[in-house]
Q: What sequence folds into this?
């Protein structure tokens, strides 16, 4: 009877948290109760970078995390953080559910974690307090807070905006007072962080679809029998369907919530945005392995 | 023997002062960096992406250097009720317990901080691009200094020096 | 059993006088070893506990406070307060409180305030026939106003201890009315005590002279406007405003008052480094301790225990207030905020108390503890400046204590006192 401790930065009830709970139930069923899962939500055990280290050292057992938090540690995984690498949700699912997805999961073993499955994290778009963004010209000179990552900083620069570093907790008042014009995120985070109250324009440019990933510590994995390992992989895959349903429902719910707050949502012609990403790709996709991977993702249907 | 101890103590004193001054330079550097960040964003309208991460690194250095100096200068805050309640002869014994505990923690900072630093060699700090190792170095250095300063005090105590009797003014701070 | 290791080692070491940061760190280390998990996490949290940009406000505000005290900004504010309120009965007591309120609007440290205002006011009050105990008590209680009025780095510590999602701007704004209320209640108390003791009044120096004092203190007082205006108009964030406060205080004392020289500056820097290192090292060690409390699920367990005792939020707040007052007697403010917020905040939140409101309650409550021996640093400073013993100060402090407790009661049971002002900015 082993209780596996799992970290999540999202609050209780969030699709990823609920999916890992479901994963725990499935795992318990499949292993006759030898393994169960306890989820520590709301970043109780630390922010993403911290919990990755904890999983690697075997302090905690499981971790649900955004692939972006691995930074450049897993080179193959960095391609999923390239702006506009995925064309649509369908394309996103086709790539991750196919051989390319398995190939990227396998690459995590090099950093002492076993990646089990991908969850949906939705598409991220820009929101701001000034005006709807329709064209690249609208981005000119606007200050956006982005996550601390070179790709995102370069992406905003390539779009003509100003990437501004700022702790996440200060974004609300930062937009309110005008230190920054806006930030970027998916519908659910835009809603739950309360940013919709101060940033009344959400423009669906959908620059990123970063997959969430469920990983288990290699130390735990190596201590499991092959049957239990298989059961774990199976349970993870089965929890994915459930998470995608919850996620789709959550997006609809959050969209309605921000609209109720008076947010103006506008569609964006993405072609010029995609075109503007050329220099970013040239800077980050230099390795032949990555170039091949990008080509194969782009060739995938959907 | 005794002269040797006091000479060593003078060296430690110099190390401690150097660490304190380095920490002071860090505080001034951090002030300049954050001011530069505000200036670049508000006046020039072009935010440097590295200032936030860099100033956090500097802060971590001056906190851990200062914390080690605090062990020697005894400005860390404690709850000294038992020291007043018990006779003066109990003081060296209580202080020895604390010193052993502090040595243990300092050793942990070196050992486990070192483990984190080694693993960090293959991870880059986003935006700064430097290896994560430098994030954990302040802990390792501070731990080593803490061990050194605690050993100095324990040795002086065993040699009969009045390390526990002097009433150094404790830094008063309600924080 | 692991609970005994965590809290037992912490309590045991604390009892023998080990510095608090090490009590927290060693207790965490012992527990993780007992649990058989890799100890690296203790040192990872020690580091990430101090690696937040928002934390920078602590060194900056401490640094700025030192510069203002040594650079004569405080002295000029006191002269101004004297010219406007000295003519009331027990005038210098009133001056003391008004000066504390003005200085509190630019400093966040009650100790700095007791030292700055007390250092100038207490000798003057004694010379004019006021009891030394009265002077000390007025100084030490009115110093607490600095904690409530923005800027207040204790509120930043609270926000971070609460998980970093509580808006610092809201906390700052929420403290204004309680801070002014405390000033008002203390002024009334000081007036009543002064009447009973028959203390003198000061002559009114005339509007021209008052205006002159005002003009001289403007460069210092401008800091309030700069911090507030700067944050509210989006020039810088609440955290960055602390850095601007340093730069501004430095420039005013160097260029306008010409009281800042190299040796003064070095004193300020080294002093700020010592205080900051001590405080932030505790914050780092408390992050390790907090990580273990989360891992062992201490907070939900305690909440369940309290829920079985009572389900009335008013009772829960009363219980917590009494507990904090007791703890505040023995421990210092910063460490207590850091240690108790992760336990109490989820508890009161589950009873529907607003986190911003609870922050104000906690700061005022622990502030009162700063005036209670055995660990009462603000009272120590005031008594030292007044050259009287702690016991002499204690004997006649009760009217001022009662005033403080009344304000605490009002702040606890009338949430609007804290929450109305921030709601205006929403
Ligand atoms: Na203040
Ligand atoms: Na106290």
A:
């Amino acid at each position: 009877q082993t209780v596996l401790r799992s970290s999540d930065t999202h609050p209780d009830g969030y699709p990823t948290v609920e999916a890992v709970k479901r994963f725990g139930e499935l795992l318990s069923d499949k292993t006759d109760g030898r393994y169960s899962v306890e989820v520590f939500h709301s970043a109780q055990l630390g922010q993403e970078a911290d919990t990755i280290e904890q999983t690697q050292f075997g302090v905690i057992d499981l971790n649900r995390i955004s692939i972006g938090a691995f930074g450049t540690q897993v080179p193959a995984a960095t391609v999923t953080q390239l702006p506009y690498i995925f064309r649509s949700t369908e394309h996103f699912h086709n790539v991750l559910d196919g051989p390319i997805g398995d190939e990227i999961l396998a690459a995590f073993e090099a950093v002492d974690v076993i990646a089990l499955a991908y969850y949906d994290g939705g598409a991220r778009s820009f929101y701001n307090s000034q005006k709807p963004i329709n064209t690249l010209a609208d981005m000119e000179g606007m200050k956006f807070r982005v996550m601390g990552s070179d790709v995102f900083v370069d992406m905003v620069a390539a779009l003509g905006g100003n990437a501004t570093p700022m702790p996440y907790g200060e974004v609300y008042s930062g937009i309110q007072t005008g230190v920054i014009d806006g930030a970027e995120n998916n519908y659910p985070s835009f809603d739950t962080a309360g940013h919709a109250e101060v940033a009344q324009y959400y423009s669906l440019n959908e620059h990123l679809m970063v997959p969430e990933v469920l990983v288990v510590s290699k130390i735990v994995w190596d201590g499991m029998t092959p049957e239990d390992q298989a059961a774990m992989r199976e349970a993870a895959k089965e929890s994915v369907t459930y998470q995608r349903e919850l996620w789709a429902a959550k997006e609809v719910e959050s969209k309605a919530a921000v609209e109720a707050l008076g947010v103006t949502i506008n569609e964006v012609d993405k072609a010029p945005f995609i075109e503007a990403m050329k220099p970013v790709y040239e800077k980050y996709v230099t390795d032949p392995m990555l170039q091949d991977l990008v080509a194969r993702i782009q060739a995938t249907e959907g | 023997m005794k002269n040797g101890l006091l000479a060593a103590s003078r060296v430690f004193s110099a190390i401690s002062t150097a660490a304190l001054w380095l920490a002071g330079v860090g505080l001034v550097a951090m002030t300049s960096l954050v001011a530069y960040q505000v200036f670049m964003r508000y006046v020039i309208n072009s935010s440097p992406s590295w200032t936030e991460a860099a100033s956090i690194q500097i802060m971590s250095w001056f906190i851990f250097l200062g914390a080690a100096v605090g062990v020697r200068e005894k400005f860390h805050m404690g709850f000294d009720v038992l020291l007043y309640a018990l006779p003066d002869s109990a003081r060296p014994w209580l202080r020895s317990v604390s010193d052993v505990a502090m040595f243990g923690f300092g050793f942990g900072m070196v050992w486990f901080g070192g483990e984190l630093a080694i693993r960090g060699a293959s991870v880059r700090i986003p935006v700064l691009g430097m290896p994560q190792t430098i994030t954990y170095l302040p802990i390792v250095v501070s731990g080593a200094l803490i061990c050194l300063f605690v050993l100095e005090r324990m040795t002086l105590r065993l040699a009969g020096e009045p390390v526990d009797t002097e009433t150094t003014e404790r830094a008063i701070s309600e924080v | 059993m692991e609970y005994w290791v965590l809290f037992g080692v912490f309590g045991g070491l604390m009892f023998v006088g080990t510095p608090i940061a090490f009590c927290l760190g060693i207790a965490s280390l012992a527990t993780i070893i007992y649990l058989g998990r890799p100890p690296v996490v203790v040192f990872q949290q020690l580091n990430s506990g101090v690696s937040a940009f928002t934390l920078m406000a602590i060194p900056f505000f401490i640094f700025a406070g030192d510069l203002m005290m040594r650079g004569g900004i405080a002295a000029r504010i006191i002269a101004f307060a004297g010219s406007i309120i000295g003519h009331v009965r027990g005038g210098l007591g009133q001056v003391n409180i008004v000066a504390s309120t003005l200085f509190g609007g630019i400093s966040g440290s009650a100790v700095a305030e007791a030292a700055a205002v007390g250092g100038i006011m207490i000798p003057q009050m004694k010379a004019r026939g006021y009891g030394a105990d009265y002077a000390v008590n007025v100084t030490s209680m009115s110093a607490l106003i600095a904690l409530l009025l923005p800027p207040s780095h204790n509120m930043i510590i609270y926000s971070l201890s609460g998980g970093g999602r509580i808006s610092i701007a809201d906390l700052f704004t929420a403290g204004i009315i309680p801070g002014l209320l405390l000033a008002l209640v203390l002024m009334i108390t000081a007036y009543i005590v002064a009447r009973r003791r028959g203390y003198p009044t000061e002559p009114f120096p005339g509007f021209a002279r008052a205006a002159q004092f005002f003009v001289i203190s403007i460069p210092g007082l401008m800091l309030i406007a700069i911090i507030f205006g700067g944050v509210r108009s989006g020039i810088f964030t609440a955290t960055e405003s602390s850095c601007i406060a340093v730069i501004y205080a430095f420039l005013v004392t160097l260029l306008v008052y010409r009281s800042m020289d190299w040796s003064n500056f070095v004193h300020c820097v080294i002093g700020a480094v010592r205080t900051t290192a001590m405080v932030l090292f505790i914050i780092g060690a408390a992050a390790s301790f907090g990580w273990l409390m989360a891992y062992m699920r201490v907070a939900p367990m305690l909440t369940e225990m309290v829920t079985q005792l009572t389900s009335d939020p008013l009772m829960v707040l009363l219980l917590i207030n009494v507990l904090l007052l007791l703890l505040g007697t023995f421990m210092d403010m910063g460490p207590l905020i850091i240690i108790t917020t992760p336990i109490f905040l989820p508890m009161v939140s589950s009873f529907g108390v607003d986190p911003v409101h609870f922050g104000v309650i906690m700061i005022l409550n622990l502030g009162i503890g700063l005036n209670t021996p055995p660990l009462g640093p603000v009272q120590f400073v005031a008594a030292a400046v007044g050259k009287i013993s702690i016991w002499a100060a204690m004997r006649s402090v009760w009217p001022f204590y009662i005033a403080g407790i009344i304000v605490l009661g009002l702040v606890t049971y009338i949430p609007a006192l804290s929450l109305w002002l921030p709601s205006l900015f929403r």
